[in-house]
Structure formats: C-alpha cells, structure tokens
C-alpha cells in the first residue's frame, strides 16, 4: 500500500528567491535531477520481466489512477544539442509500424495494470510526437481508448510535446479532438545566429502562430521550453529571447541548462566548444532569467520550471501536493505510470522499469509478443521513505516532521540522525532552516535544492555523483 497523509499547505508564501555567488560556488557540484529515487543509475541492468509483472499486479490491486506515457522517437530534423533517444528520418511511413507495435505493447500492459483504471494523465514525448501523420495519431489514440479507461473530464491532464516546425493546419485541431488539453512547445532560443548553430531554424512568428492557435482552440497550461548555454548565447542575447517569450505569455516556462557532452551524444560534435558561453556567462544568464521571470509575475516552481500563479503547478505547490516523476513536475501524485515505446520508463509505488533503449531490440521483443523491459529496480521501504522525503523537499521546499511521522510511523530525527548531522553546514549557510517542526528550504537554497536532496540520498552518501550533470 502507498503511505499517504494529507498534504501540508504552506502557512505563508515562500520568501523571494535569493542568489548567492559564494554559496553557488560552494555547492554547485554534480547531482541527480530526482525525477526518480532511486535514480536511473541504480537500476538493475538485468531486471527480470517477472518482477515488473509482479509490480504491475500490486499496482492493479491498489486501484490507483494511471498516467500513460508514450515515447515517439521520430524527428524530421536533427537538433545538434539534443540528447534524447531519437530516430532522424523524413520517412513518415515509418510511424505506423512503430505505433502498431506500441499498441501491441499497450495490450499486454493493459491486462497487467487493469483496463478499467482511470487514465487521468497522458503524455506523448519524444522525439517529435507531431512527426506522426494525422491518421497515425488517430489510430494510436483510438487504440488506447479500446485498451485503457481514458478520461474526458476537465480534470484530465493530457499533454503533448510539439515542435512548431512540425505543425500544419490540421495538427492542433486533431490533437484537441483526440483529447489533448495541454501542450509544450520547443523554442530553445529565438536568436537566428543561435538557431543556425544548433540546426533549429524556427522564426519567432512560427512559434507565436502555433501558440495563438492553441489558445484559440482551448488548450490550457501552455509551456515553452528554452535552453541556456547554447552556441553564441550571451547574457544580452538571451535577455532579448526572454523578452520575446514573456510577450507570448506562456502559462509555464522550462529553462534548461545545456550540457555539452559530445563524447556521449554524437550530434553535439557539430557544436564547437569555443562558441559556447563561459561558465560565468551561463550563471549570469540564469541569474538574470530568474530575476526577470519573477519580475514578470511567474513563480519559481523549482530547478528550471516557472509558472504563472494561477497555473495548476503553482497552485499544487502552494497547497503542498506537487509531485515529481520522469515527466518532471506534475500534479498527479496518485498515479502509477504506464510507459510505452522504446526506452520508456514506468513506475509503480514500489518499482521502476525501463524498456530497451535500442529500437531494433525493442521491436524484436514486441514482435515476439513479449515485454521489452531490460532495466529496473524494486524499492525497499527505506527507498520509499527517502523518495518521499526528497519529493517533499524538491516539490514543496519543506519537510514537516509531524507529516513524516503520520505517513511513515517513524521519528524523522531518529531515522535521519546521520543526515541531519550532515545537513548542519547547510543550516549554517542558510540554505535550509529548522524550527523544530519542519525543515524549510530558504531563498538561497531553492536554486541548490538538488544539493540538499542529496543529503537524503543513500546512494550518494559516498559522494558518487560524477555520473550526473552539474546542479546549476
């Protein structure tokens, strides 16, 4: 059973964000993004499919709602910065065979997880989901409708990632008809020199046209993605991009840091290192971006996410019920995650499991009528406790002792005696405060939340964080 307790609303609005160069230098090491705990590097590389089947049975018995994720890997264009699992092709006919296999996989998972459970959250990611022709999109969603209990009420959260370059006059109306009500638009930067350097030519007017049409149709909670640290970006040029984006009035903004790792991601070899902004310039860009977005009325949700005060993410955070999973920040903490497609990661209350990252291998497994799970991990009670604690800190910026005791029947100070001892330097540096009732992340600690969370990460206790990106 999932340990639950009523979320603790914040008693007051969090103080303003605070930037402290000295603390950033001290704590800006590397660390996980905590879209899961344990993190993906702890997954068993030979996770038995039988364990996933057992986890799905336990999930089915719980009756919790479901979140349905689909990884659609196709892209018509190669963006040089991209580190996603993708297939670059202009051949649209490849989409239907892939979708047919996804539906075969969905049929298996529907039986395992329970076809009658309400799907309150659904997301298409990639890749470029809008690579799919209209009839293929319809076929996929109709198949899901036969296999799962898709919801149609206003409370559903059905989202899709959109490349504005891959949108024609039918795309948005089709997505709306299929039940999607939220979209995320990839922008990255509106500066033509930056766009050319990363092979993503996307005029501002193109983005605005898609966004305005989405609003006219009725899509809500529209998100725009930006990336800082790309070639030829400067604090001045990115400030101009930010002004252009603020004028578009998105409900949410994701502002990601580019990590240049050409040894790991071959497309990044097309990017010349000497064209990238310096580490200090990147910090300046981030500092200016946060200040400007706060000034423009956005709330800092955490890490690289911002939202308008009336957006569901901001409301959920204020009410103490924000959640984090492989799709980032979400309001659907009650959902188990069924994931379909190559490399997709699923989640139940006590397990994670990932499909094969290699497309031909995934196809072979599905064609044989088998699941393509290759990695995963079963969670111990300690894992679940630490996941809950890290979730409270990274989502609510607060860890309440009474709530912890109610959920886990444990005493926080006794259970985490060692961790609270190692937290003392952060208390002294005023990254976090402890009034005896709760640990409260302070304004200077919000940017460094990943460092705070690592204190409670048993797998990082020995300092093994070199496999992760820098915190800032």
From TrEMBL:
Keyword list, A-Z: 4Fe-4S, Cytoplasm, Iron, Iron-sulfur, Metal-binding, Oxidoreductase, Porphyrin biosynthesis, S-adenosyl-L-methionine
Cofactor: [4Fe-4S] cluster
Highest taxon above the source species: Bacteria
Cited Pfam families: HemN_C, Radical_SAM
Keyword DNA-binding tagged: no
Gene Ontology BP annotations: protoporphyrinogen IX biosynthetic process
Complexes and interactors: Monomer.
Protein name: Coproporphyrinogen-III oxidase
Gene source species: Marinobacter gudaonensis
């Amino acid at each position: 059973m999932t340990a639950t307790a009523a979320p603790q609303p914040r008693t007051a609005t969090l103080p303003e964000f605070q930037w402290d160069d000295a603390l950033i230098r001290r704590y800006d090491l590397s660390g996980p993004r905590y879209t899961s705990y344990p993190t993906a590097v702890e997954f068993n590389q030979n996770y038995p499919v039988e364990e996933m089947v057992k986890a799905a049975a336990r999930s089915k018995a719980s009756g919790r709602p479901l979140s349905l994720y689909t990884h659609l890997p196709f892209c018509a264009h190669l963006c040089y910065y991209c580190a996603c699992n993708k297939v670059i092709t202009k051949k649209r006919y490849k989409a239907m065979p892939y979708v047919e296999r996804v539906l075969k996989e969905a049929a298996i998972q529907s039986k395992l997880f329970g076809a009658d459970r309400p799907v309150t959250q659904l997301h298409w990611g990639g890749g470029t989901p809008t690579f799919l022709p209209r009839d293929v999109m319809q076929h996929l969603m109709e198949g899901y409708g036969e296999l799962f209990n898709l919801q149609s009420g206003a409370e559903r959260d059905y989202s899709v990632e959109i490349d504005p370059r891959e949108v024609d006059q039918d795309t948005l109306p089709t997505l709306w008809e299929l039940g999607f009500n939220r979209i995320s638009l990839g922008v990255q930067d509106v500066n033509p020199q930056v766009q050319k350097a990363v092979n993503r030519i996307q005029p501002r007017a193109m983005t605005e046209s898609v966004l305005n049409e989405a609003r006219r149709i009725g899509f809500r909670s529209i998100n725009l993605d930006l990336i800082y640290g790309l070639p030829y970006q400067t604090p001045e040029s990115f400030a101009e991009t930010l002004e252009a984006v603020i004028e578009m009035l998105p409900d949410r903004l994701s502002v990601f840091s580019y990590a240049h790792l050409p040894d790991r991601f071959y497309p990044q070899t097309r990017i010349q290192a000497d064209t990238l902004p310096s580490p200090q310039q990147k910090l300046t860009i981030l500092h200016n971006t946060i200040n400007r977005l706060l000034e423009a009325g956005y709330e800092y949700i955490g890490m690289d996410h911002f939202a308008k005060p009336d957006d569901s993410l901001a409301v959920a955070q204020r009410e103490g019920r924000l959640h984090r999973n492989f799709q980032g920040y979400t309001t659907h903490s009650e959902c188990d995650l069924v994931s379909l497609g190559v490399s997709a990661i699923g989640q139940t209350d006590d397990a994670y499991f990932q499909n094969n990252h290699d497309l031909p291998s995934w196809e072979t497994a599905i064609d044989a009528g088998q699941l393509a799970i290759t990695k995963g991990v079963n969670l111990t009670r300690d894992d679940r406790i630490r996941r809950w604690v890290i979730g409270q800190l990274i989502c609510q910026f607060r860890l309440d002792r009474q709530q912890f005791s109610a959920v886990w029947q444990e005493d926080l100070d006794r259970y985490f005696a060692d961790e609270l001892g190692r937290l003392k330097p952060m208390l002294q540096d005023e990254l976090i405060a402890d009034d005896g009732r709760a640990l409260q992340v302070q304004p200077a600690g919000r940017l460094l939340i990943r460092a705070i969370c690592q204190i409670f990460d048993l797998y990082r206790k020995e300092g093994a964080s070199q496999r992760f990106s820098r915190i800032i």
